[in-house]
UniProtKB/TrEMBL annotation:
This is Stage II sporulation E family protein. Residues 186-395 form the PPM-type phosphatase domain. It comes from the Bacteria. SMART domains: PP2C_SIG. One of its GO terms (molecular function) is phosphatase activity. Gene3D superfamilies: PPM-type phosphatase domain. Keywords: Hydrolase. The lineage of its organism: Bacteria, Bacillati, Actinomycetota, Actinomycetes, Kineosporiales. InterPro entries: Bact_Sigma-Reg, PPM-type-like_dom_sf, PPM-type_phosphatase-like_dom.
Length: 414
């Protein structure tokens, strides 16, 4: 059969570009199905809880919530969907169900951008695809990650599909404070984070940003619950981002956030925070601890807290100064940041150091599921009393001769 001029990845992307944002994935699925001869192509999006895949669907005529999207659980990691998300590799399997022709197959391809597991592409084909078709499916799934990342700026379709239950106002505010991607893979590091919300939002946030030679990471925990905590968190995160984008050092960033919180809340609300700036060449880390639990370092099969001296939380006292302390990462180190919801109340029953040692080779993205599942189990199925938030940074080093410079021991102090 002669190849059409609009076949291939370029044809897919041209068709998407010509479609309205709300129809981009529909057009992508239809065009890819035509190119590889699939009877069905569908995109399954990871839900907000990270526990299921949701088959992308449009809201009904009555608006969001009038249709329930099909969900596929990720709890059983031995099943094809869960294995594909974990292993991040394309799988060709027998097609499910009766009445299909002999030899019919199902293809599952991870839709991932820089380690952020956005979902899966699923194709049903009447016969096993050839190598060229599989190569196109793999490339198309990778391209779809960037299509979704771009198109969700223009429509709420992806938000509708990912949400299982209605979100409170505080929850809405909290989500808008988080980065768009919870995982980032770069040459020197892999980072993943997760926030398991309490029954009433507890004001936790995390953030990160990458520039040419530094990685910035922050974790904050605002006092209180619900909208009041969300508003405190908004002021703190907004101030920290503003300082970071202005090129300020960590001490100045924390001082500005402290002044903003004191000015607008009269010392009646505070935010704990841990701010890190990682030098991507040396592995040197600048750190500010504003009354927050210290990070945990996993090194050589052992877990210990990084010895940082805490300053006051932001918002407690006008004029508070914040010390920039320093330590250094070695290639192979894992750094884990936590809020108190991961270590207090029912979460105290979790053997956190033991989990980190047992799962020291687990990808950070999967480690987030391990940690949050352990906290939920410790809560005995009851709603969490406080947000439980974690962030994992795996440090690989710069990948050149300068890597040897990153071998010094961790030290505390200013």
């Amino acid at each position: 059969m002669p190849k059409r001029s609009d076949d291939g990845l370029a044809g897919l992307l041209d068709a998407v570009e010509a479609a309205p944002p709300v129809a981009a994935v529909d057009v992508f699925e239809r065009r890819l199905g035509e190119q590889v001869g699939a009877e069905r192509v569908s995109f399954l999006l990871t839900d907000f809880a990270g526990q299921a895949l949701v088959r992308l669907t449009h809201p009904g005529a009555g608006g969001p919530g009038t249709e329930r999207a099909e969900q596929v659980s990720l709890d059983d990691e031995t099943l094809p969907y869960g294995r594909t998300v974990i292993e991040q590799r394309l799988r060709v399997l027998p097609a499910p169900g009766d009445g299909r022709p002999a030899g019919a197959v199902r293809v599952l391809a991870p839709v991932t951008a820089r380690g952020d597991a956005i979902g899966l592409l699923e194709l049903l084909l009447p016969q096993p695809p050839g190598e060229d078709a599989l190569a196109l499916v793999a490339a198309a799934a990778h391209a779809l990650a960037y299509v979704v990342t771009t198109e969700r700026r223009h429509t709420d379709l992806y938000e509708w599909s990912r949400r299982g239950d209605p979100v409170s106002l505080a929850g809405e505010i909290q989500r808008q404070l988080l980065p768009n991607a919870f995982t980032c893979e770069a040459g020197q590091f892999t980072l993943a984070a997760w926030l398991e919300p309490a029954s009433t939002v507890g004001g936790d946030t995390f953030d990160y940003a990458l520039d040419a030679d530094r990685l910035y990471v922050s974790m904050t925990d605002a006092m209180g619950h619900d909208t009041a905590a969300a508003l405190l968190a908004t002021l703190a995160v907004g101030s920290l981002r503003n300082g970071r984008r202005a090129g300020h050092d960590l001490g100045r960033m924390a001082g500005a956030a402290n002044r903003a919180l004191v000015e607008h809340h009269d010392g009646l609300g505070f935010v704990t925070g841990l701010l890190l700036s990682v030098d991507l060449v040396t592995g040197g880390v600048d750190a500010v601890d504003a009354g927050h639990p210290p990070p945990l370092l996993v090194r050589d099969g052992e877990v210990r807290a990084v010895p940082l001296e805490p300053d006051l939380p932001m918002g407690v006292l006008a004029g508070t100064g914040y010390r920039v302390q320093r330590f250094r990462l070695r290639p192979g180190d894992r750094l884990v940041l936590l809020t108190d919801g991961m270590v207090e109340r029912s979460a105290r029953r979790v053997d956190l150091p033991g989990l980190l040692v047992r799962h020291r080779d687990t990808h950070p993205r999967q480690l987030m599921r391990v940690l949050t599942a352990a906290v939920q189990e410790a809560a005995g199925g009851e709603p969490l009393a406080d947000d439980a938030t974690a962030l994992c940074l795996d440090w690989a080093g710069p990948g050149d001769d300068r890597r040897a410079e990153a071998g010094a021991s961790v030290t505390g102090g200013p």
